[in-house]
Amino acid sequence: MPRDQVQPADKPQFDLSPWTETPASTRVSRFRYDHANRETQVQWRNGKGNGYVYREMEYEQYRLFARAASKGKKINEFLNAFPYEPMTNEEAGAPSNTNRRGLQSRVQ
């Protein structure tokens, strides 16, 4: 569904897991998964912009990215195959669902 279309009021717009910080990555600062929209949000270490949202991604595909030792390499080899675009301010600022557990990166 395009972002400019309004979703029904009875459905949450986002259902975001908590941000996972990646202090060992030279490229990725943090990432999280949107269960409602099947999307992965990634923010960069360089701090330019809000980061990117990778769309049409199943949770198991997100887990492959989350468990990768090299986030930058996995983005080039795997995530860039999904439709992606810069995150909007609304997406970047949306609160995480406190009932969700985040995944930990294999490398901290």
Q: Give me the Rg, rounded.
A: 13 Å
β-strand number: 5
H and E string = EEEEHHEH
- End-to-end distance: 34 Å
Structural class label: alpha+beta
Could you tell me the strand content as a percent range? 15-25%
Low-confidence stretches: 4-11
Write down the overall mean pLDDT.
86
What attributes does this structure have?
5 strands, five-stranded antiparallel beta sheet, globular, single chain, 3 helices, 108 residues, alpha+beta
Commentary on this structure:
- There is one protein chain.
- This protein has 108 residues and is an alpha+beta fold.
- Helix content is 19%, strand content 19%.
- It has a 5-stranded antiparallel sheet, covered by helices on one side.
- β1 (20-21) and β2 (28-34) form a beta hairpin.
What's this entry about, in short?
With 108 residues, the protein is an alpha+beta fold. It has helices at residues 59-66, 71-77, 89-93, and strands spanning 20-21, 28-34, 39-44, 52-54, 84-86.
List the helices and strands and how they pair.
Blueprint: E1 20-21, E2 28-34, E3 39-44, E4 52-54, H1 59-66, H2 71-77, E5 84-86, H3 89-93
Antiparallel strand pairs: 1-2, 2-3, 3-4, 4-5
